[in-house]
Known about the structure:
About 75% of the residues lie in helices and about 0% in strands. It has helices at about 1-5, 10-25, 30-50, 70-90, 90-95, 100-120, 125-140, 150-180, 185-190, 195-210, 220-230, 230-255, 260-280, 290-310, 315-335, 355-360, 360-375, 380-395, 400-425, 440-455, 460-465, and strands spanning about 60, 65, 340, 345. A hairpin with a 2-residue loop joins strand 3 (about 340) and strand 4. The protein has 21 helices and four strands. It is an all-alpha fold. The chain has one domain (about 1-465). The protein has a two-stranded antiparallel sheet.
Amino acid sequence: MINNLSILLPEIFLTISIFSALMIGVFIKNSFNKIFNLSSIIILMTIAIILNNSNSSEKIFLDSFSRDTYSNFFKILILISSLFVLNSSKAFIIDSKLGKFEYPIIILLSILGMFFMVSSNDIILFYLGLELQSLSLYILASIDRDNLRSSESGIKYFVLSALSSGLLLYGCSLLYGFTGSTNFDLIANELNKENIGAVFAMVFILVGLAFKVSAVPFHMWTPDVYEGAPTSITSYFAVVPKVAGLAVLIKFMHIPFSNILLEWQTIIIFISLASMILGAVAAIGQTNIKRLLAYSSIGHIGYALAGLATGVISGYESAIVYITIYVIMNIGAFSCLYLLKKDGEYKEKISDLSGISKKHPILAISFLVILFSLAGIPPLGGFFAKFYVFTAVLEQKMYALAIIGLLTTVISAFYYLKIIKTIYFDDSVITFDAPKNKFAQLSILVSCIILLTFFLYPSVLNNVAETLFIY
């Protein structure tokens, strides 16, 4: 029993901390700053607990919950990205009058749901974690309830996400019916291409998971929710749930669906291609930065799925490397948006960036580094992310996927370069307020340093990823 508790220590600590923070918020007036700072401390302490208990791989509760290097890596990535997203957006939250003590607590609840998702070795526990995450995200999407756009984005996300969750749950129930188990390892033993019902169930599960990571053709909510939700929420949506979603996708492909590779590989290849193409083409005509970043995130998920589509460990590792660098790039990109403030109003139009290089040279250089990295231009981190994915794809002789992926990279470079052209060559329109958001500036600095210096030791993430599949 004590051993079980030690394995669950990060989840137990996070749960008790959430309840404690909620009680503090209820009984102490004007407690937003206290709860916000407490949430950051809780995240840091949870990271320390995971690092302190990461030596062994164990499964508990009839093998339904697993602690291993794979789940620990993704938990730490979720926590670090949440810490940066949360703190870089604090000034925006206060300026937008969203400073309610429930805000960081809901973020922590969604993190707890993601923890159970990435540690699940059972479809029931996985679904419980997914719903805890989703319920938190529904609230976050519409948290600015006095704003019509925010309320609209919350409703759109809720309706479509509920539909996808229903399909996923139906797939889980079919999978249990045709394999006789909810445990991933036992499902893998029963699942083969002759088991048509279970293969059918796999399709429904993939649909639900594709929705959660904004993959085409289940992406329809993404641009509207990204544009309508407050920027602080958009940055969270763009980064953290993507990490948990991809972690679960890889786990499903690697364990329960490992014996039906050819059946799911075709689906993943289609979703990957569709996401890369739509992400590259649809973003070209966008005028809102958040909406453009929504299509950009769809395209980037397509590249990560290309690594997953290989069906081999090296491909999964390349997808993990890709999502890690994607997180770094997007934290930097959204932190830049928090500095686009004029007379108390945050600007979101690409045209508002016209000529900022003349009056805000440091911000302009930050945009340059991050956008070049998003475009995959060497020697920045984004180039190596794509390089490892396409290397894994070519090793499996999936030439069509690699060629289309490279073509979409070229097309997507157009809209990133268009923003850089606006920044450096158009006439200056707006002089933004002097930046006061120190943590956003720190996030930009850290992001740019990592992206600029990644070429010095490009195999560092690969070396980490290689250790994640040694159970």
